[in-house]
């Protein structure tokens, strides 16, 4: 086997090894270089893999040469390669900006360990996407969660500690629920390989054990996903974490949970059982819509902008859940597209907030007064990211809203389509609050003159903003891959 | 098989799980919360080990005269899960130590009260600023 055949495992192993290496090299600058190199290597591998998958179809990689279902299988299909692209691209870009931001926000003695935990979280997330083994999902989930608790606790405010603890308790309950669910499935089928599970489950779908397992899995993933009533850990965790961590987690962690939900609902259980025999479609639609409306409404009244965007994240997750709940190809396209596009917009927005913290020192609404004149490039990026969040054409956000509305209209769900539009209008309200403060309020008197953010922060921000606009105009790549992925998900058991 | 002896382990699992879950929710002390979380996780370990057992089954080592073996796979899985559980407890306790350093307390309500006091004092500042600016 050549090196090219090992790509599915390299994407995970490179950051996994880089984690301890970062701690070993100890010097902040060296640790940053190690992390950056590993992240870009991993991203390059993901790009090559996406090309391979689109050419030759699903890649199956056997760890240690043990054939599935006995050995652990890494399986990259279109959905996997699509999510892997965004999961590796975001940390690669965040790390470029992280150098300045981390030096500013984190004590020097902790920086090497910060990058170590960062790379472990990255490896865990990439692992969830790559693996085709149900138990492996749990292990990688815990690798990424444990390191993200540590990352969040490094925030400057002491409330970072309590929010990390809160997240630890809720995250562990979620992960244990997933473990119980997988246990029940294993009990009935004797296998952990997802493909194998999908083949064996139909025979035992009617048993109470499998149904209980299904419920445990859904709730467990829902906790990790911050699905609406289970989202309580998210706003605090995002608000008090260091800026680079917020940008990284907001753009990848919940997205990977959406991916896991798609995998289990559509691949393992099959959507006929998951969304039609079980009443999950109605449940998901209600929690999705409730998430969109309530979280957006709460976001409007936030003074801390990081917290405002965190609530907006909960709302955006609502759109993805809503897309899944429709159980149609268009709905799944909307959900997978939004996974990708939301990562682009939230990555850009939270990185821009990191730049504001770097220059101004805080991100409450007061700090934004007159910011349009003080940091024009950063603020312009926030406005463009915000437009994408609302869903104004020609941004990426518009594309997903478009598909979502199409999917609801396909099933004549007019009220749902209207609620989606209302959710977008609420997004307009909270983004407008920022714009008003930044462009229509005077710079506070006696405020120190600040310079624009350093180019190492502006570059990744504007790359992400550029991607938002690029993927809003040239939709063939993203929509093409999402359509292909949705067809695979829906067509597994026709 | 009678219900009670046949399901004895599962009943224990459910009891431990719910007891742990209750402690996590009801206790205000962060260390006690972690104890509950540990109990909750441990119950799942027993669940896995129980399902791997076979009535009359032997340890999975080939020996003469033995035809029924217990499945070793759940044990291996749980070995991994135990490591995860230990790591979770370690991270949790480390956080509690840091919280104690920062707040001087590990009681949830005291910590909330201090955060609330922080919020109120930080809210006073802008008002004072505005008043000064108004003059």
Provide a concise account of the structure shown:
Chain A is mostly helical. Chain A contains 20 helices and two strands. Chain B has 135 residues and is mainly α.
Spell out the key features of this protein:
heterodimer, A: 494 residues, mainly alpha, two-stranded antiparallel sheet, B: 135 residues, 0% strand
Explain this structure to me?
The complex is a heterodimer of chains A (494) and B (135). The longest helix of chain A is centred in the last third of the chain and has 32 residues, at 329-360. Chain A is globular. Chain A contains 20 helices and 2 strands. With 494 residues, chain A is an all-alpha fold. In chain A, 78% of the residues lie in helices and 2% in strands. Chain B is an all-alpha fold. In chain B, 77% of the residues lie in helices and 0% in strands. Chain B is built from 5 helices and no strands. The longest helix of chain B has 31 residues, at 73-103. Chains A and B meet through helix 5 and helix 6 of A and helix 3, helix 4 and helix 5 of B.
Class derived from helix and strand content of chain B: mainly alpha
The biggest beta sheet of chain B reads: none
| Percent helix range of chain B | over 70%
- Sketch the topology of chain B as an H/E string, one letter per element: HHHHH
Q: What percent of the residues of chain A sit in helical stretches (DSSP H or I)?
A: over 70%
On the 0 to 100 scale, the average pLDDT of chain A is 89
Estimated radius of gyration of chain B:
25 Å
Topology record:
The complex is a heterodimer of chains A (494) and B (135).
Chain A (H helix, E strand, L loop, with lengths): L6 H19 L2 H29 L2 E4 L10 E4 L1 H28 L5 H20 L3 H19 L6 H31 L4 H11 L3 H18 L7 H8 L2 H27 L1 H7 L2 H21 L4 H21 L3 H32 L10 H4 L1 H15 L5 H15 L3 H27 L14 H19 L2 H16 L3
Antiparallel strand pairs in A: 1-2
Helix pairs in contact in A: 1-2, 1-4, 2-3, 2-4, 3-4, 3-10, 3-14, 3-19, 3-20, 4-5, 4-10, 5-6, 5-10, 6-7, 6-8, 6-9, 7-10, 8-10, 9-10, 9-13, 10-11, 10-13, 10-14, 12-13, 12-18, 13-14, 13-18, 14-16, 14-17, 14-19, 14-20, 16-18, 16-19, 17-18, 17-19
Chain B lengths: L2 H4 L1 H19 L3 H23 L20 H31 L4 H27 L1
